[in-house]
């Protein structure tokens, strides 16, 4: 039953799934060569019991699930190392070696994850790496699990969707500095951990801070239905471009009845416009590819796993899980457009959208927690995410000398023609000097041209405008 805030906290199925198949929790701390800690999952040890007042109960619940770490058996011949970075590393056992899916962000965490796998499953050589998509948490650790020399010698295949390198470079090189800085804020890796600091980032606990690498793919997947057999492991691919990443794909292992959904079906509502500045995601396209995945693979799958969070087992559960995820993105898309066409603004829509019970009760309770920030992000303008509450709005900014005019009972569309607003604008404009300086507090001067000779009165007064 839903609790007081409408979320089914009594449903413990996710906790059972997140623990299922645990072989070894491993070491919570990963260091780089210099001995510096670049990952410390043990710092989240405070995540037990009821949520404290400072943390939304849904975020608390999600973080206690996501902070679980170790080597897990997903199904016969498929393993995952979870809780060793923001993302999961999956390992598929072939005839002679292993195929590694998404080697985390850093070489150090990827190497530690592989070592944990090998400790229990033997020193099997990596024969291929699959990158599900073009985000750094799915390729950055590649040189921690294979070497460029092995790839060059043909001993290791690097398999990725069409467009992988172009988009990886666009994000991590062209806009790399800005995006890395923004990712620092988005994932809070430098925050002190605790109920008043870093609690978790939803998809994973946070990002590791080690060495990021990239190896050019040797095999590019271009077509839905394309098949590939590597080391005796058969795979059928589904292209899903323009979803969570511009270059992304799902794939099915027919001999294991297992489906990998990359990052398009996780146990939350994924962000659609990231604070770090990644390309905006289209929920309509996303829903389309989830429908296609259900039609192509779900009925023949016993387990679905992804590169974040825990797997879902059982054909019926898989169809329900993927359907709810699909409905979530489709509903967001459709309702945003419906309200947009009725004349509501982004922030107004963010406050108005409510998930119908059919989606919200079945979906992970984290959905509602993420909704609060993510929907606003969905419809705000990229790069300048300014959220204006519906009830009242004003500007206070250290770089602007703004005059706020109280105007009540007027819709935003009428503001430019409301008498009180136009009077203020006219009065401000009337006091703008021809050289761009102002004589009235409340209007910032344009670049002034200094008058010849002594400074005139307008320049003196400009000082008061700040
Ligand atoms: Zn990811």
Walk me through what this model shows.
- There is one protein chain.
- This protein is an alpha+beta fold and about 475 residues long.
- The strands form three sheets. An eight-stranded mixed sheet has the order 1-4-5-6-7-8-9-10, with helices on one face. Strands 11-12-13-14-15-16 form a six-stranded mixed sheet, covered by helices on one side. Strands 2-3 form a two-stranded antiparallel sheet.
- α9 runs antiparallel to α11.
- The chain is globular and about 80 Å long.
- Bound molecules: zinc ion.
- Zinc ion binds next to loops.
- Zinc ion (ZN) binds next to loops.
Secondary structure layout plus pairing:
Blueprint: H1 13-19, E1 22-24, E2 29-31, E3 37-40, H2 57-66, E4 70-75, E5 78-82, E6 89-93, E7 98-101, H3 107-121, E8 126-130, H4 148-152, E9 157-161, H5 164-174, H6 176-187, E10 219-221, E11 227-230, E12 233-239, E13 249-253, E14 258-260, H7 283-296, E15 303-305, E16 312-313, H8 315-341, H9 346-352, H10 357-360, H11 366-379, H12 419-430, H13 457-465
Parallel strand pairs: 7-8, 8-9, 9-10, 14-15
Antiparallel strand pairs: 1-4, 2-3, 4-5, 5-6, 6-7, 11-12, 12-13, 13-14, 15-16
Helix pairs in contact: 2-11, 5-6, 7-8, 9-11
The structure holds zinc ion.
């Amino acid at each position: 039953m839903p609790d007081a805030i409408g979320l089914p906290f009594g449903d413990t199925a996710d906790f059972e799934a997140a623990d299922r198949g645990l072989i070894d929790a491993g070491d919570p701390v990963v260091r780089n060569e210099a001995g510096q800690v670049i990952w410390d999952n043990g710092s989240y040890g405070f995540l037990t019991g009821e949520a404290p007042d400072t943390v939304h109960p849904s975020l608390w619940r999600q973080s206690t699930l996501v902070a679980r770490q170790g080597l897990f058996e997903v199904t016969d011949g498929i393993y995952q190392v979870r809780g060793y970075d923001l993302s999961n590393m999956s390992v598929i056992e072939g005839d002679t070696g292993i195929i590694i899916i998404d080697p985390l962000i850093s070489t150090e965490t990827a190497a530690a994850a592989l070592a944990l796998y090998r400790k229990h499953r033997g020193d099997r050589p990596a024969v291929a790496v699959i990158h599900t998509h073009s985000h750094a948490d799915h390729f950055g650790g590649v040189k921690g699990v294979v070497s460029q020399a092995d790839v060059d010698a043909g001993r290791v295949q690097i398999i990725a969707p069409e467009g992988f390198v172009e988009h990886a470079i666009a994000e991590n090189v062209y806009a790399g500095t800005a995006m890395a800085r923004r990712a620092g804020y988005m994932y809070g890796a430098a925050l002190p951990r605790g109920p008043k600091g870093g609690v978790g980032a939803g998809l994973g606990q946070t990002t590791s801070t080690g060495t990021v690498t990239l190896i050019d793919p040797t095999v590019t997947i271009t077509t839905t239905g394309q098949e590939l057999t590597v080391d005796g492991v058969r795979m059928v691919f589904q292209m899903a471009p323009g979803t969570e990443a511009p270059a992304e794909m799902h794939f099915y292992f027919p001999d294991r009845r297992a489906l990998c959904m990359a990052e398009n079906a996780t146990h939350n509502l994924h962000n659609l416009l990231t604070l770090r500045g990644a390309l905006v995601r289209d929920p309509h396209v996303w829903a389309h590819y989830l429908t296609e995945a259900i039609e192509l693979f779900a009925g023949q799958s016993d387990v679905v796993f992804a590169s974040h969070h825990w797997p879902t087992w059982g054909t019926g559960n898989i169809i329900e899980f993927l359907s709810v995820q699909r409905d979530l993105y489709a509903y967001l898309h459709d309702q945003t457009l419906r309200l947009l066409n009725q004349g509501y603004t982004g922030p107004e829509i963010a406050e108005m959208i409510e998930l119908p019970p059919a989606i919200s009760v079945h979906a992970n309770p984290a959905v509602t927690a993420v909704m609060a920030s993510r929907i606003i992000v969905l419809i705000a303008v990229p790069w300048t995410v300014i959220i204006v509450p519906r009830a009242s709005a004003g500007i206070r900014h250290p770089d602007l000398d703004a005059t706020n005019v109280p105007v009540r009972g007027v819709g935003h569309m009428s503001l430019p023609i409301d008498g009180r607003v136009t009077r203020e604008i006219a009065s401000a404009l009337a006091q703008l000097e021809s050289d761009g300086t102002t004589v009235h507090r409340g209007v910032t001067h344009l670049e002034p041209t200094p008058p010849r000779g002594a400074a005139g009165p307008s320049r003196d007064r400009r000082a008061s405008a700040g």
